[in-house]
Each structure stands twice: as C-alpha cells, then as structure tokens.
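Worked example 3 (structure in, sequence out).
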C-alpha cells in the first residue's frame, strides 16, 4: 500500500515538473495587440501590477463599461489584492475567511488586464515564485473550451486529479456561448462521467464535481451575473492601473527614458486621455501612437481627444501594415488611407453590423457578408485577431474579434459617418442633414439602458469635426463642412442635459463627454450649471452619481474655485466619492464628512501633484487621528505642495500627529500660512513645536489656532447641564435622581395627560433648548437611542415618532455589540474596534451644522463614533429612547 502511494507521489512529481515546463513555455511571452512576432515581449519584463480590489455585486450595470472605468478609477478606496493572493483572505481577516475562498469571480472591462493577470498568476506558479502549495493549474479560456483539451493531461490518472490541490481557471465568461446550468437535477459528481461542457462546468462551480478544487473565473461586468452569487466566495474587480502603475508601464514599455517622460507628460496634460490610460490596452494604444508621432518633427499635432487618438492609431497600424507587406515606409497619410480605403470600409461595415447585433466576436460568414476576403491575412494586421475554436469533433471554425471593443465602436462610428457623406441610402433615407443624423443617434443612445452606444456616439460626433475629417482624408472621398452642424448639435445636447425628463446621471455624463469630444468651449460653464442644479435638487444623489460628478470636475480644463461636499444632497459614501475632485479645485471644504484613510490618501496624492491648484483645505471634524494626519503630511512635505491654509479642527490630533505636521512644515516651509488645530489635544510639546515654527524665519506659518480638545469640552463654556422633561416621558419610563435618570419599566406610570408626551415610544426629551455649541455625556444600559431633535417631532403614532426615524431628529443607536447612526429612517452601521462603551459624549456645533458622538473610556479618552452634517433650522433638544436606562452626567 505504501509502495503504491510512493509510486503515485513519484508520478505526480514527474508529471508536475513536465507540466510546469510546458506552462512556462506557453505563458512567458505576452502579445500586445495582435499575436505577431513583432508584438511579442517577455511578460516579466513588462508586467505591471494591476489594481485589484474585493468588490460587491450590485444590480444590473446601466452604464457603458468605459464610462464605468473612467468614473471608478478615481475612487480606489479599497485594499488592493495581488493577483497571486486571489485565493487568500485580506490581511487581518485570516480567521474569518480560512478555507472559505474556493471560487473567485474577477470582473473587469474589456482590455483592463484580466487575461494578463491570469497569465502572470500561472507563470509565477510555473516558475516557482508563488502558490507552490498548488499541484496543478489548468487554464480553460471560455472561447477555446471546445478546442483546448490539454494534451499533456492524457497520461494523468483521474485519482491524481481528485487527490491533488488543483486550480481551474476559466477566462472570459463574456466570450462564452455555452449555457451554464445550475439546476440541481443536472448533477455530475464522477470525473469519469461524460456530459455536456455546460453541465460539467456548472457542476464544477457548484462544487458537485471535484469539490476540493479551486476555481477562478474572469468576466466582463455585464456577463458576471450569469453565475448565482451563492456559488461565488469572493468577487473581485480589476480597476486597471493606479497612477504610479501607469507611469511604471510606460517606462517599462518605452526603453528611451526621455521619450517615455515626454509621453507621460503629454498624457497628464490631457485629463481625458490621462483617465483612459488606467486601461492597460489604452496605454498600449497611446504609447504606440505617441512614439510614432514623436519620431516625426516636433510640430506634429499631438492627439488631445479620444477620437484623435484612435484616428492616429488607425494611421499607425496602416503604416505598419504597409511596411510589413508592401515594403514601403513613410508614406503620406492621405495616400496611405486611400490605398487601404476598401479594406478599412469593409472592416468598418463589419464593426457596425456586429455592434448593432451586440456581437464582439464573429465568424467567417460575418466577414464574407461584409465583402472581406478571409484568405487575405494582410486584412487583419493591427486591426483584427483570430482565435481558433472547435465547435465539434468534425470541423474547426475560426472566430474573430477586433483588438478591443472600443476600436470596434470607433470603426462602427466611422462607417456611419462615411455612409452619410457618401450618400449611402441606408442613412440618407432616414437622415437628410448631419445635425439630424447626430440627433437621431443621440436619441437612440439615450434610450439605451446599459449605455452600450455611449462610446459609439462620442466617436461619431468626434469624427464629424472638420479637423478630424482632415485627418481621415483619403478614407473620406470628400469632407463635410460641419462647423454649423456641430454648433446645432452642441445646443441640442445642452438642451437635453438641462431639460430631458428622467435622464440618468450616466447618460448626462456621457453627453458632457460628447461636448468634450467636440471641443466645446463652454463645457466648464455647463458643468457648473449642472452641479448647481444637483446641489439644490430634492432627489438624493447616489454614490454612482457622485463618482460621475467628481469625474466631470476632474476632466475640466478650468479650475473649480470651491468644492464644498456638504452642499451635495447625498450620503457619506457619496461625499467620499466626490473627494477625488479635489485635484481640480482651489478650495476644498471636506469638513465633517466621515472621511476614511483612503480619502486622505487621495488628498495626499493631490498635494504631491505638480499641477494641483489646491491652496485651502478644511478637514475639520473628521476622525483623522494619527494615521490620517501621517497620510496628509506625506503630501504636505512634498516640494510640489502649494497649500496655504489647513484646518484640522476636532480631528483627534495628538502630540504624535503634531510631530508629523511639524516635520512636514520643516521639509516644505514656504507655503502654509494658516493652521487650525483647535478642538484637538496636541499637548504641551505639540504647542511648543508650532510656537517655535511661528518664530522660525524660514517658515511662512503666520497664524496658528489651537485649543485643547479635552479642556474645551470640560469647560463651563461648552459643557451643558441637562435635565429630563417629565411632561415628555412615555408612561413606561420612570424618572429619578433629579430628573437625570430614566429607566424603562413594565408597569405604566400614572403621569397626567400632556400634548408633549410620547404615546407609543419609550422616549423622553430634555427641558433645555441646546445652545449653539454644547457638550454633554450620557451613560446607558441594555440599549438606547441618544438623539438631538426639534421639539415638533410627532409624539403620537408608530415608528415614525422614533428618534432618528424621521426628518426632525438625529440619533445614535447604542447596543452591547454595535453602534448605528439614524436620520430620516436611514441608518449607517458603525464599525468599532472593541465592544461599545456604555458612556457616550455628544458635541453640537450648530453654526457649523455638525453633531458628533464619541465613546468615553474610564480614563476619559474620547473616540469618535459618527458626525452628522446638516443645516439646523429650528431650536434643538436632547432626547433618548430607553431600553434599559440612561443617566445624564454632570
């Protein structure tokens, strides 16, 4: 028996080494664009780590994935996951997630790097660099499932497959035409049993077949919902390159350091291109175009819009095709396009027809329908790639796709414009004038629920510009005088933004991007008017809308004078999504917005930026603590930082934080003039540090404001003496100890009738009207709502009378295992590091519109729990809902 086991182990090890060698050979090289020898690069020499985060599955995606990418890149507020750690729990969650992560679904838009991440994951394993506890990794791209049967597995015993640690990787769920079946009556548990591919895959994912294997599935967002969430242990999202990763990519790909720096500098100057470069394949397109342009004379026009970049990419690919197959180089662009017109127009027709059908992959008969000679390999150079796919044992079929969905959309838009200017009856029968064509496509795109025509529309409007038509001379038989048509179309778009009923934020954002593509000079004014309308809207902005607004503010070439997050009708999460807009404003008011460390990282990166216009920053009444201050100081000490005013009032700043701040000011002493440290506890040492800086002739600091946090709240000026009002107490509450304590009881108390008495809720208010700034402390037991309310809160009724469950009150719900903040029947659960303490402090700053809650330790250390930000319009009173007892201290 032992001999058999030894022999089996020996077989496994021999096979494993042989298999790893084959995997190294297969995956050590990367093809950017088309799989041609000149595009071949060693993966390890160019690979740049992508930003992968743990995500949550939301509803149906209602935006074009490129717009989703543009908006999301600026809100990277999660812990990144290395692709080699895809099956490992996040640091600090090992105990909670042990042996749970079996099936991982990774979502990301086309070209974001899903397949390259898979390739790197396998290569690092095969080369012995990572995941050496895994015996085998098997990669099965969905589009090749019926072709790729892994011939190296022919000698592998099924018993080995069941007893070894195995990872199955299914890449590209969105490219699959296999129907997955998750009904339980289609059960397959024996590896030797034959069944359809769809049934076998479904049973693998459900855990019926090979229940011990690990499974990694990649997909574009729209297709990810095909797999029920109960079968996914971890959902991750690839957000592409972060800022440092983007620069790293260009420097790795471009060997000429000076040229790489010039390209990076140009991309940073164009906000729209800069954002798009978070998509790896767009980095490749941009570097291909810009390297080619920089070889020309310095006067070469550098692309500034998406359409311009894609036109130049088409020219570059045609030039490369000419050099390869026709042995000519340096041809005039117009002549080059003219000689390739027939090929490009046919490919554009294919792109348009397949886009309208929703197809990103197509067969030979689709090419033949568009008049393309499938035997001419030169047709595909730089534009199409081919993949073999075997649909039956009898024959193989080739399937085709464009190098990226966005390039298919570009060619489709070109086909529509080409057909219009060449009097193609397909378009002229419907649209007689260019503005009418634009309007028709705009209206169709706006009706789309998932925004699948958003980028197509942007390209169509961009191609219509006379400057872009001139770039396409040679393809176009003649150009259309379009300046008046463009003015008509921009006016139509602006009217849609302002007056279209039910227009979603995503469609609105894409219309702004259309204006950008048409180089509309009034774009910034239109954005400000849009922002003014959403600020005063009664409808609450979703976090997604806030991401979109932040994106709009960033792409504008004009600087926003003031960004005040409190003016936006949204949630705390929505305000956090707006933080990246700080990069394009002079004055950022982020006070009292429950910011996170990730928000502070974004602010710090803005402070480090060479072109940041930010000169005033207010972070008051956020729980920065030492960690947050350290992050901000990393930006403050940068020589690029030009900040003149910094407010961190009430931010839990300690003596340690003061060391960070003082060090930053010593490193960069030339700009900060005013520092507000009030309502913190810097200690004597912290005060001395900043007093010394005030005297330092090299330091520009002129104004320092500080008041000790603890001293301030315990002083007579803010400490407030409260008593409970018997006329408001519910009959199941007893008041005692000079109306300082309220206790819940079973028996009703014989209180006289009173209009102010709570009828059905075990609640009580205080007698005293709260002053503009006041502080008090409460001890609670078993559970309580600690609240501030208007006197006019309803006293008779159901749950709408409960403190925090209506528009008239704000409360903190305290229990033995959690806190949650309530207002207008909406709650926010609050994570605390330890069990909630039974003593809570409340600080009201009515003029500032902040209501803050803190837990109080035995040593009287205050830990921030939550801050409400609002505008108080009536006199305020303290109130309590009592489940055990509450006691007013002081």
């Amino acid at each position: 028996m032992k001999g058999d086991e030894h022999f089996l182990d020996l077989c496994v090890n021999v096979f494993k080494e042989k298999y790893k060698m084959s995997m190294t050979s297969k995956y050590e090289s990367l093809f950017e664009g088309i799989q041609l020898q000149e595009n071949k690069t060693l993966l390890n020499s160019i690979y740049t780590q992508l930003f992968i985060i743990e995500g949550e599955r939301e509803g149906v995606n209602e935006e074009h994935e490129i717009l989703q990418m543009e908006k999301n890149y600026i809100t990277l507020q999660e812990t990144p996951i290395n692709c080699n750690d895809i099956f490992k729990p996040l640091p600090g969650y090992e105990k909670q997630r042990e042996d749970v992560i079996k099936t991982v679904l990774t979502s990301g838009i086309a070209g974001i790097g899903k397949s390259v991440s898979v390739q790197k994951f396998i290569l690092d394993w095969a080369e012995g660099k990572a995941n050496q506890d895994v015996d085998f990794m098997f990669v099965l791209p969905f589009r090749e499932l019926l072709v790729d049967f892994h011939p190296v597995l022919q000698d592998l015993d099924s018993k080995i497959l069941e007893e070894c640690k195995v990872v199955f990787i299914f890449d590209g769920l969105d490219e699959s035409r296999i129907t997955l079946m998750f009904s339980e009556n289609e059960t397959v548990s024996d590896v030797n049993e034959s069944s359809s591919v769809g049934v076998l895959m479904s049973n693998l994912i459900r855990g019926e077949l090979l229940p011990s294997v690990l499974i990694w599935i990649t997909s574009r967002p729209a297709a990810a919902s095909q797999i029920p969430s109960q079968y996914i242990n971890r959902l991750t999202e690839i957000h592409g390159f972060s800022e440092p990763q983007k620069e790293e990519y260009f420097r790795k790909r471009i060997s000429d350091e000076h040229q790489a720096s010039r390209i990076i500098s140009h991309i940073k100057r164009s906000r729209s291109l800069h954002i798009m470069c978070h998509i790896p394949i767009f980095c490749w397109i941009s570097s291909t175009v810009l390297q080619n342009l920089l070889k020309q004379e310095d006067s070469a026009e550098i692309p500034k819009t998406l359409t311009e970049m894609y036109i130049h990419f088409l020219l570059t690919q045609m030039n490369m095709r000419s050099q390869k197959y026709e042995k000519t180089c340096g041809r005039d662009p117009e002549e080059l396009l003219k000689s390739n017109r027939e090929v490009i127009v046919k490919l554009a027709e294919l792109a348009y027809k397949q886009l309208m059908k929703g197809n990103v992959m197509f067969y030979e008969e689709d090419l033949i329908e568009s008049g393309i000679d499938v035997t001419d390999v030169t047709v595909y150079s730089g534009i199409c790639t081919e993949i073999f796919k075997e649909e039956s044992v009898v024959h193989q079929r080739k399937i085709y796709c464009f190098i990226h969905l966005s390039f298919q959309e570009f060619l489709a838009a070109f086909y529509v414009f080409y057909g219009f200017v060449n009097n193609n009856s397909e378009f002229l029968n419907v649209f007689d004038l260019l503005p009418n064509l634009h309007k028709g496509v705009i209206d169709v795109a706006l009706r789309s629920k998932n925004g699948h025509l958003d980028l197509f529309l942007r390209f169509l409007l961009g191609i219509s510009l006379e400057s872009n038509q001139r770039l396409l001379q040679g393809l176009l038989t003649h150009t259309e005088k379009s300046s008046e048509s463009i003015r008509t179309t921009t006016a139509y778009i602006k009217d849609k933004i302002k007056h279209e009923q039910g227009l979603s934020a995503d469609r609105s954002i894409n219309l702004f991007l259309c204006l950008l593509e048409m180089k509309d000079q009034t774009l910034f004014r239109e954005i400000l008017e849009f922002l003014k309308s959403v600020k005063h809207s009664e409808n609450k902005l979703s976090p997604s809308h806030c991401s979109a607004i932040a994106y709009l503010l960033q792409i504008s070439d004009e600087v926003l004078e003031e960004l005040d997050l409190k003016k936006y009708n949204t949630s705390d999460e929505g305000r956090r999504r707006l933080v990246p807009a700080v990069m394009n404003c002079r004055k950022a008011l982020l006070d009292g917005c429950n910011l996170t460390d990730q928000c502070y990282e974004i602010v710090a990166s803005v402070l480090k930026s060479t072109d940041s216009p930010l000169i005033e920053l207010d972070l008051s009444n956020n729980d920065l603590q030492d960690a947050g201050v350290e992050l901000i100081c990393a930006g403050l000490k940068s020589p690029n930082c030009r900040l003149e005013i910094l407010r961190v009032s009430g931010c839990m700043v300690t003596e340690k934080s003061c060391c960070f701040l003082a060090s930053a000011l010593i490193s960069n002493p030339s700009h900060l003039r005013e520092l507000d440290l009030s309502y913190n506890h810097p200690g004597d040492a912290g005060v001395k540090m900043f007093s010394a800086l005030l005297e330092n002739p090299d330091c520009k600091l002129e104004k320092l404001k500080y008041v000790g946090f603890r001293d301030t709240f315990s002083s007579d000026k803010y400490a407030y003496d409260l008593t409970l009002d018997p006329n408001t107490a519910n009959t199941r509450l007893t008041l005692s100890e000079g109306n300082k304590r309220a206790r819940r009881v079973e028996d009703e108390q014989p209180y006289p009738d009173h209009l102010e008495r709570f009828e059905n809720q075990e609640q009580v208010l205080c007698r005293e009207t709260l002053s503009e700034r006041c502080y008090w402390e409460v001890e609670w037991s078993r559970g309580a709502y600690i609240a501030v309310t208007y006197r006019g809160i309803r006293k008779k009724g159901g749950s709408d009378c409960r403190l925090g469950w209506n528009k008239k009150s704000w409360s903190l719900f305290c229990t033995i295992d959690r806190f949650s903040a309530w207002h207008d029947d909406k709650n926010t659960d609050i994570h605390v590091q330890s069990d909630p303490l039974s003593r809570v402090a409340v600080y009201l700053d009515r003029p500032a519109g902040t209501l803050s809650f803190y837990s109080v330790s035995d040593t009287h250390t205050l830990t921030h729990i939550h801050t409400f930000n609002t505008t108080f319009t009536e006199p305020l009173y303290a109130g309590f809902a009592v489940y055990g007892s509450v006691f007013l201290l002081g």
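Notes: The first strand starts at residue 29 and ends at 31. The chain has a mean pLDDT of 81.
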